[in-house]
Design a protein that fits this description.
28% strand; globular; 6-stranded mixed sheet; alpha/beta; single chain; 12 strands
């Protein structure tokens, strides 16, 4: 059975997810955007070992904890095509608590080696198979991941709404297409968004204005 645990991290209440098979102690991290020390401490307390990081997109609030976690664990990082084709400020964000401006400008954002995932890819990590959907609109290179009857939707689909499209790399037209792609998926999924509450695809089909 797939277990998905949510940790809300940072000032933007980003949902960082820990995904693993219930019988295993290796896991996958999705969008560790802030508080890497807290995330690593939680994993140690739960006796879980991360084997990879999956990113839904490369906005600063979703990638801020990546490099410290990679430095501590050596795990590979996966993201969508052209996901880093964004202005520096949108990837770097604001100064972290106690951080001066010079350090912010020089802070390492992502490892040199990144693994690109594309539409239709399937990748098995920690005993869980993830299927990849390209869902641009909120950001260039945005991905959703399907695993079992679960969807990790990033900032594409939220409970009752969807991601903003007015930032650089966003596109209202692409968002309409991406939401239509998710709406057309067969069956139902538990939806784990990048912010806010967990929902279901059936509920969003019925109530979300973006899927009208």
């Amino acid at each position: 059975m797939i277990e998905i645990e949510k940790l809300r991290v940072g000032d933007y209440s980003v949902n960082c997810y820990i995904v693993h098979e219930s019988a295993r102690k290796d896991c996958v991290l999705v969008d560790p955007g802030y508080e890497p020390e807290r995330i690593l401490q939680h994993l140690a307390e739960e006796n879980l070992t991360p084997v990879a990081i999956l990113l839904t997109h490369a906005h600063f609030d979703h990638i801020g904890g990546v490099c410290p976690i990679v430095a501590a664990t050596g795990v590979p990082v996966y993201l969508g095509p052209n996901a880093t084709d964004l202005p520096d400020w949108l990837m770097r964000g604001y100064a972290l608590p106690g951080e001066d401006e010079e350090n912010r400008k020089n802070r390492k954002l992502l490892p040199e080696e990144l693994h690109v995932l594309r539409e239709g890819d399937k990748i098995s990590l920690a005993g869980v198979e993830f299927s990849v959907l390209e869902t641009p609109g909120h950001a260039v290179g945005s991905l959703c991941y399907l695993c079992g009857d679960n969807m990790l939707s990033g900032d594409t689909l939220f409970c009752g709404t969807y991601g903003r499209t007015d930032l650089p790399g966003g596109s209202p037209i692409d968002m309409v297409r991406s939401l239509a792609k998710l709406k057309a998926l067969p069956g139902d999924y538990n939806v784990y968004p990048g912010h806010g509450e967990i929902t279901t695809l059936a509920r969003e089909r019925d109530t979300n204005p973006g899927m009208a």
